[in-house]
Amino acid sequence: LPSGPTTGDLVMVRKPDGVVGTIEAGYAVVAPPAAASPAAWSAWGAAAVTAAVAEIQLWAANAEFLESHCTVNGPLATGTKGVLTTRDDFDGQIRDALLDAGAPAHVAEGWDRAMAEAWNGWADNATVVALPWYPSFLAYPAAEAYPVANVPTPLAGLISTGAPGMAAPALSQRIEDEIGADAGTTDAGYALAAFANEIGLRFLTFVATRQVMDVMGSGPVPSYNPSIGVLAGPVVGTCSGYPVLVGGDF
Asked: pLDDT by residue (tens digit) across 179-190?
């Protein structure tokens, strides 16, 4: 039998003549449950929190607004999905921290993957819905508006369909699903709930207190035409910036 996890048909080969017979189709050998004590799960949860906070701090410090997804129409800015991104994406810090703390590879990898998917589910779906970021662009007295910083706005002012995924119950469930059977024990449940509650509460504070700043708007004023007496008009352009999130720690 296979010595490690695998899937496929379980077959028997008769050595004298090489005849092959299928014993069981779709046979699977799975990894044994992690022999983890309550103290181990608690330690893994603490390690995961520390790593997640560090990873999110780097993400936020390098967050940017993409010009390709951000437009200006007069004083209003609109950003489509993908407008908020980062130059320092998740790179496995949670996985590495859990492995260092003694967690099995599938626990570490599942936990790391679930956290990254939840965070990116929020960030990748963040949008700017007609926010009045550029008051001076309503009637700009020139043919071209040079870069102007947006009106500072709490990060919570961005709308994301992925935000519910960062709530504690959803985050805990996502991690449990990714880890699999080992996450079904009482001790694992406590550890995952504690992690999700901590990260979920920090997330709520994060979006409420972090400010979206230095998103620079610019562009032409199509209606500007001094020859016919039109000396000002709305800016129709784009907006972008790096870095754009200012505030306290996650």
From this structure: 999 999 999 999
Supply the pTM of this predicted model: 0.84
Query: In this structure, what token pair is assigned to residue 17?
Result: 């003549």
pLDDT, tens digit (0-9, with 9 covering 90-100), for 78-100:
999 999 999 999 999 999 999 99
- Give the integer Cα–Cα distance in Å for 1 and 4: 9
What does the H/E/C string look like for the chain? CCCCCEEEEEEEECCCCCCEEEEEEEEEECCCCCCCCHHHHHHHHHHHHHHHHHHHHHHHHCEEECHHHEEEECCEEEECCCCEEECCCCCCHHHHHHHHCCCCHHHHHHHHHHHHHHHHHHHCCEEEEEEECCHHHCCECCCEEEEEECCCEEHHHCEECCHHHHCHHHHHHHHHHHHCHHHHCHHHHHHHHHHHHHHHHHHHHHHHHCEECCCEEEEECCCCEHHHCECCECCEEEEEECCCEECCCC
**In which band, very low, low, confident or very high, does the pLDDT at 4 lie, cut at 50, 70 and 90?**
low
